[in-house]
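#structure-requests
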Amino acid sequence: MGEPRFYLALLHNPVYNKRMEVITTTVTNFDLHDIARSSKTYDVNKYYIVNHLDSQQKLVGRMKEYWSGDFGAEYNPDRKEAFSILDIKAELTEVIADIKSIEKEEPILITTDARTYPNTITYKDLREKIHSGDRPYLVLLGTGWGLTKEVMNSTEYILEPIYGRGDYNHLSVRSAAAIILDRLLGESWFS
């Protein structure tokens, strides 16, 4: 098995609101911190925030700067390390271009959803592909009420839904990210 070349992106645009209108959501402090920490724990190459609003890009930049230098870095060195893999881009195309510049090839795109599709892939099958090291992989997480149909249709695979014991299925993106990272990059105790 090769070394996984794995990237993660949290898209704030284009996503739907509850009326299925295309919107841009705002960045949340918890999503930055918690997903960056999970990403660093599972050795993700890079964790991207995708938001085209200048105000949101500046907010992410200020937060990253605070936790990477001065008091924030001294107060919590672990947070500095987690934020070292965080990057912000305006559009998904910029994320793909950045990965291509690093890896010398485009990543295979995978989205997530609470429904199944014809190109749904199991965690076990995607885990095997990722651990082969043959290609870089980029998993896209959506905010709001999910990624747009265009984004969903532009990807090679859609990860199978995360199911719990009950009928309720509406995890926070932070919780879903942690579960996904563990299933794809963690110990293979469940195989």
